[in-house]
Design brief:
- Helix content is 76%, strand content 5%.
- By secondary structure, the protein is mainly α.
- It has a three-stranded antiparallel beta sheet, with helices on one face.
- A hairpin with a 5-residue loop joins strand 1 (26-32) and strand 2.
- The protein starts with a helix and ends with a helix.
- This is Type II secretion system F family protein.
Length: 422
């Protein structure tokens, strides 16, 4: 009992020391080296005197040492993006595979960062490691940037003594998943921008162009054709109740987002409808299968138990429907069912994937088969996105032409009618 109490006390003391190191201010210094050359840099320390003492120990003559000023509104720099984490993963994996010590690797990577926020994050992780934390514990300070899956993989690598190999696997995993996300976002960006432009053009015409034509028609006493009357009525409504339209659109988007985040049933319904869309649904479905296969392959290769890995895999699919299916599969595997049988019960995985998983389980090469499935569906996503992009371009032009062109034709119909009577 006394041994357990002492161990707990030591653990708390180590945690307090790590927290104290993390909270140290950073001092920017300017010093002269032995040749009289002016040097500058930054160093975390409790006070300026310790910085000066450290500089003198290194053979430099301190000139100025001042604490780095903190920004007025939180951390400076842009937000840390998943792409930044992917690049960092590749850098740290390469350095550790080359034999560079972990702390030194963090120093090198942090010095090369242009984003102050990410640089400060890496410094804090390094300080945690210097304070006695393992890498996965130090990364736990930033659960948003380094999610549970990432930390679990690092912990598995540390436990097995193959951290450099696991980091290389993690880097490849992050690069592949971010590439799929970027591909899908690129495919959606063009049609969304075209629709936004079409909406703005229609708004400008309804608010500023149509009223001019409407006044001319009224002064001429011409009888308006049905299409023109519809456009004029829409213009009058927009001029009188434009705020209703704007608040209605913004309110609908906000309500949709809130309902999806707060209601599991609504999120499931919305995700299932999205997966049934003609072209985009197929891309999202293939993307979910690719991410499931690669994530499960990485975790299984890292030595994470299959049932434990399924929890992290569920969140990585990017789909509520597939996440629920993975949780169902986890429960089936936990009671002794084979993975391929659990996958078949969900009805969401193609027969080819189920068969490859079955072969992998029988041959003892499950991770290899999962990677093969991931590569196949990643290629399918790439091809589908390229096809979608080529189809959307003319389709968006047609939509834009029908909306704007239809309004122009409707406005000129009374003029054509007057000209025919004359």
């Amino acid at each position: 009992m006394a041994t357990v109490t002492a161990a707990t006390k030591n653990t708390r003391q180590q945690a307090a020391q790590r927290a104290q190191i993390t909270q140290m201010p950073t001092y920017e210094w300017v010093a002269l080296d032995k040749r009289g050359k002016r040097m500058k840099g930054a160093m975390p320390a409790k006070n300026a005197s310790l910085v000066k003492a450290e500089l003198r120990r290194q053979g430099m003559n301190p000139q100025t040492v001042k604490e780095r000023t903190k920004p007025l509104f939180g951390s400076s720099g842009s937000a840390v993006k998943p792409r930044d984490i992917a690049i960092f993963s590749r850098q740290i994996a390469t350095m550790m595979a080359s034999g560079v010590p972990m702390v030194q690797s963090f120093d090198i990577i942090a010095d090369g960062q242009k984003n102050p926020r990410f640089k400060n994050m890496l410094i804090q992780v390094k300080q945690g490691i210097e304070g006695g934390s393992t890498l996965h514990e130090a990364l736990g300070q930033f659960p948003v940037q380094f999610d549970e899956l990432y930390r679990n993989l690092v912990r598995a690598g540390e436990s097995a003594g193959v951290l450099d190999t696991i980091l290389d696997t993690v880097a490849t995993y992050k690069e592949k998943t971010e590439a799929i996300k970027a591909k899908i976002k690129k495919a959606l960006f063009y049609p969304v921008m075209v629709l936004v432009v079409a909406f703005l053009v229609c708004m400008v015409m309804l608010l500023f162009v149509v009223p001019v034509f409407a006044k001319t028609f009224k002064d001429a006493g011409a009888e308006l054709p049905a299409p023109t009357q519809v456009i004029v009525s829409m213009s009058e409504f927009m001029r009188d109740y434009w705020w209703v339209v704007i608040f209605g659109m913004v309110g609908s988007i906000v309500a949709l987002v809130m309902a999806k985040s707060r209601s599991v049933k609504f999120a499931h319904f919305l995700d299932r409808v999205t997966l049934k869309l003609p072209v985009m649904g197929n891309i999202l479905r293939q993307s979910a299968i690719a991410r499931f296969s690669r994530t499960l392959g990485v975790t299984f290769k890292a030595g994470v138990p299959l049932v434990e890995a399924m929890d992290a895999v569920a969140g990585a699919t990017g789909s509520v429907v597939y996440a629920e299916a993975v949780h169902q599969m986890r429960d089936d595997v936990a009671v002794g069912h084979q993975l391929q049988l659990a996958m078949r019960q969900t009805g969401l995985f193609p027969n080819m994937v189920v068969q490859m998983i079955a072969i992998g389980e029988e041959s003892g090469a499950l991770d290899h088969m999962l990677f093969k499935c991931a590569e196949f569906y990643e290629e399918e996503v790439n091809n589908a996105v390229d096809t979608l992009a080529s189809l959307l371009e003319p389709l968006m032009m047609v939509i834009l032409g029908v909306l704007v062109g239809g309004m122009v034709v409707a406005l000129y119909l009374p003029i054509f009618k007057l000209a025919s009577t004359v």
